[in-house]
Design a protein that fits this description.
This protein is mainly α. It has one domain. Helices cover about 50% and strands about 0% of the residues. The chain has 5 helices and no strands. It starts with 5 loop residues before the first helix and ends in a 16-residue tail after the last helix. About 5% of the residues have low confidence.
Length: about 140
Amino acid sequence: MPHRPPAAVRAALSHHPRRPHPPRHSVVDGVSAATLGEIHRLDRARGKPGVVARDLASWRHQAAQVTRRAGPGTPDPPCPCCEPDPEGRPGLERVLGALSRQARRELAAVVGSVDRRVLATTYGPPPDVPGWRERRY
């Protein structure tokens, strides 16, 4: 029996239309694939896909506003009608408590870089005081 070339086999297959909106899996830069998978599983279990990436982006935006005093070139915050309101640093703190030790260490390093920038350019209560982020100037 003669073999058909792969292109002919693929051409004979039925084509399914693409989804109108692909699933939104947000990427957190600076973490391994295993940690990113754990973050995605946690997001899905809570019914909020991509919330960790949005919280990290919100914390970076808040840090940029504090350190630059919201000068020109500061990115706009996420659209409140299109995306749920991110919690920022408090939301990241809750996620850090729910991750495994390795994933927590990797995400804490990413979040810690933003924390260090805020601490270096502002003054106020030290980071061991609860709510230090809201009272830094």
